[in-house]
Amino acid sequence: MTTSTNSNLYTVMNERKSVRVYDPSFQITRAEIEDMLKQATTAPSSSNLQPWNFLVIQDQDVKKELRAIAFNQAQVETSSAIIAVLGNSEMYKNVEQVYTQNVAEGHMDESVKETMIANTNALYPNAPKETRMNIATFDAGLVSMQLMLIAKDKGYDTVPMGGFDKAKFAERFELPEHIFPIVLIALGKAATPAHGSSRLPLEEVARFI
What we know:
Elements: H1 9-15, H2 30-40, E1 52-57, H3 60-69, H4 75-78, E2 81-88, H5 95-104, H6 110-123, H7 129-153, E3 157-161, H8 166-172, E4 179-188, H9 202-205
Antiparallel strand pairs: 1-2, 2-4, 3-4
Helix pairs in contact: 2-7, 5-6
């Protein structure tokens, strides 16, 4: 297992690039992927409801099918795994489990738990589905970025892909109505270095008042 004992966050951030050419012979174990996902889910989420699910695709035949759904992007087939980050528009149904666990782990007492559950049940089920999907999509972005940084810290490469047929994906993988695809993340070992990329000047994107 590739590990980093004293990583520098800024180094990892700057070294992470979107890699599209992977070594198809390189494989990452299920145990390592599980560890990365577990660490990634320390990301924050709205009301701590964690509205994400993951579908990890390693089977070559399935990846070949997915490549067609993802507009023939080669990295779908050549990377070690594709991690599909899915959103849950009924994230409020996690509330009892989440806050019961918070109490069990000593993060809050029963009175706070009951207040949080009541507030969640008053707000989220009554919000439009589009609003809940937007919340889940935002939170999925947070967990996805953490996953890509964790992968880089372990010596692996990634690229997020929003370009795929989400309707066909949901149909192929028989997603229930409240679970929807957000992004595909290719995970593997680069076969060729990624291209560098520029960033807009800070003064064009930030304003201080």
